[in-house]
Amino acid sequence: MPLNVVLELSDTDLKYFSRVLDTVWKEHAHIPEKELIAGARELLKQAKKAKPPTYVAKQFEEIKLLIDLLADKEWGVEAEDRRRIVAAISYFSAKKDLIPDNIPGIGYLDDALVADLVIRELKHDMEGYRDFAAFRENEQKVRGKSVDREDWIAAKRAGLMERVRRRRERMWERRQQKGLTHPILRFKYRG
């Protein structure tokens, strides 16, 4: 029988994780994006071999989606958004983290928790990309490799990216109005 564990993070807890991410980011600011992505991919690979708990595996699938989003040339993440996403995945390329990954059963829990926070912060980016990938796959089936591919891809991408921006801005405005904790991903990639 599965066990459901619920964690409640206070504003103080969220500020702590924000400081941890900020510290990691400052340590990684000089590392090229390509290396940070490779480090995150390696963590995901090692975690998969370790057969982590379902919760961890699910969170890591979402981090994989963020990496795929960055690599997708047709999606074409804009520079500022790219910096936020690279900063978000930089934690997963850290050699040292809150709980050493080699501790059986719990080694990846800190990574999964940080992944959860990152996913919440980037949910609109991820939804937009999922919709784009589904649209592209469907259109490819319907149209094949038509000459106007770049046109229909560009039109869909532009619409989805605008939707992502609007939703993200509304999310940030609601947080400010309610006096909620600032976003976890407040730092930027300086590479």
Summarize the structure.
This protein is mainly alpha-helical and 191 residues long. It contains seven helices and no strands. The chain is globular, with a radius of gyration of 18 Å.
Provide structural commentary:
- With 191 residues, the chain is an all-alpha fold.
- The protein has one domain.
- Helix content is 68%, strand content 0%.
- The chain has seven helices and no strands.
- The radius of gyration is 18 Å and the shape is globular.
- Mean pLDDT is 81; it is low at 187-191.
Present the secondary structure layout.
Layout: H1 11-28, H2 33-50, H3 54-71, H4 79-90, H5 109-121, H6 123-143, H7 149-178
The share of residues in extended strands comes to under 5%
Structural domain count:
1
Tally the beta strands.
0
How many helices? The count is: 7
The secondary-structure element order is HHHHHHH
Rg is 18 Å
Q: Helices and strands: which structural class?
A: mainly alpha
| Average pLDDT reading | 81
List key phrases describing it:
about 190 residues, mainly alpha, about 0% strand, globular, disordered C terminus
